[in-house]
Amino acid sequence: MSPDTRKSTQYERLITSMIESTDRHGYAEANIRSVIAGAGVSRPTFYDYFEDHDACFTAAINDVQAQAEQAVAAALRRPGTSPQQAALRALVELSAEHPKRARFLMEETMAGGRLGLNQRDQGVARIARAIDQAAASDPAKELVDLPTRVLVGTAYRLIGTRLRRGEALLGKLADELDTWVSAYMRPPEVLRWTQLEPGVAPPASPHVPDAAIQQMPAALPPGRPALKPGEVAENHRLRILHATASLAASKGYAATTVTDIIRSARIDGRAYYRLFTDKRDAFTAMHESGFRQVMDVTAKAYFSVQGWPQRSWEVGRALMQLLEAYPLIARLGFVEAYAVGPSAVQRIQESQTAFGFFLQEGLMEVRDRPSPTQAGMEAIVAAIFEIIYLAARPRGRVRTAGLQPHVAHVWLAPFLGPERCEALIDARMRTRPSRRKPGVRRDAETGSPKR
Questions:
Q1: How far apart are CA 111 and CA 283, in angstroms?
Q2: Whole-angstrom Cα distance, residue 14 to residue 33?
Q3: Angle at Cα 121 formed by Cα 68 and Cα 136, nearest 5°?
Q4: What pLDDT digit, counting tens, does each position of 283-326 carry?
Q5: Angle (nearest 5°) at CA 421 between 355 and 402
Q6: Are 239 and 267 in contact (CB under 8 A)?
Q7: Would you tell me the crossing angle of helices 113-136 and 53-76 to the nearest 10 degrees?
Q8: Mean pLDDT across 376-402
């Protein structure tokens, strides 16, 4: 074997080992020791190719992403279905052929902190651009009236979830995704929802709490506080949870340490370890708190009105306004949670299942069109999560409230059809609260004074 061939083989073995080690142990545990053991090379050989663990991780992502982009590009050159449908089918077929590599790209990269998320987002954006370019070259075709980045990100989520569950037969998923996206097909001249830009927010939801839950409780005064031990512990717990969420938003889970949390919470280290075992323990507790808040608000919104389309609108309105009002929930729950570990990922899956419950009643609204399949309803929820993720990823203000019409379109169109869906959105967006007299509280739904 020539030196060049041997080096190429060593590099490829390291890439393969990084993928397999991450799939087996997760990003945090796929250390250099496990990678070189799986590749059968020495530690100095590893450093011949990569500066550190993250450099190898990045190279592995780029390797699989390039394979995905090549598969999509080949599918886009074939005539037949819409570019969006062709690309999604190519991603499913590639994942069925290379499940470990696909799971690494579509699931495990989200656990890799800012590095993995950046690589994932850039890859999704490149595939989306290729799809848009193919669509622009043949404008006579009907196209999917969804933002293409959301469409590709949704496919990543659905495929990654199935591979994490160990599902090997993905062929049916391609057909179900075809059926799902066909519900959004429109002639090019009437496309309305292809650009994910926040617009005017709907009227304020009465179900979003006024309490500033993201504000850290005041620190206890020096000396022995005149409080019961349980009250002291609760003050410390809330300060830790707030510090944890704030650091997740500013630094990310992977870069945050227990020392960072203790310093930000302004408590003693012994107080921290009386309440939490480690960093993951505190992040998991904060994520669970945010999850409960989201489910409480959305459940109340859903049952506050009659009629499934109106209930669906209220859920989306409350959810998107809650996340904008409390960005720590948005960033921890929809961005950083994947890095926390299996317990947080499981809670994400539980929240997706819970939102799927809100969709079931919509099956009775379907007229003259195929009812969404179970995979189609999972795709609806995954697309909404992808919209929230894209809004919460950038630093600065989380602008989700103005994306409510997009969420409503994703949610309602497969059940109501595009025309009925858009009529409902336009009618709800024209609703504005009446001018209120000072000191008079009015019901947000009826406009009548509250007693």
A1: 14
A2: 11
A3: 65
A4: 988 888 888 899 999 999 999 999 999 999 999 999 999 999 98
A5: 70
A6: yes
A7: 10
A8: 93
> Which amino acid is residue 419, in one-letter code?
E
Helices 99-106 & 3-25 angle (0-180, nearest 10) = 70
Q: CB 192: neighbour CB atoms within 10 A? A: 13
Report how far residue 336's alpha carbon sits from residue 114's, in angstroms, rounded to the nearest whole number.
9
CB 83 within 8 A of CB 52: no
Q: What is the Cα–Cα distance from 96 to 121, expressed in whole angstroms? A: 22
What is the C-alpha to C-alpha distance for residues 426 and 422, in angstroms, rounded to an integer? 6
Cα dist. 331→126, 184, 247 in Å? 24, 29, 10
* Residue 338 identity (one-letter amino acid): Y
Residue 212 in this model has a pLDDT that exceeds 60: no
Are 95 and 51 within 8 A, CB to CB?
no
Distance CA 238, CA 286 (A): 9
Closest by CA position to 390, among listed 410, 375, 372: 410
* CA distances from residue 163 to 3, 30, 190, 225 in whole angstroms, order as listed: 37, 19, 36, 52
CA–CA distance, 153 with 124 (Å, rounded to integer): 6
Angstrom distance (rounded) from CA 76 to CA 289: 44
C-alpha 277/C-alpha 59 separation (Å) is 34
Q: Please, which residues have CB within 8 angstroms of residue 333's CB and are 6 or more apart in sequence?
A: 287, 290, 291, 294, 348, 351
Note if the pTM is more than 0.90.
no
> Do the beta carbons of residue 400 and residue 196 sit within 8 Å?
no
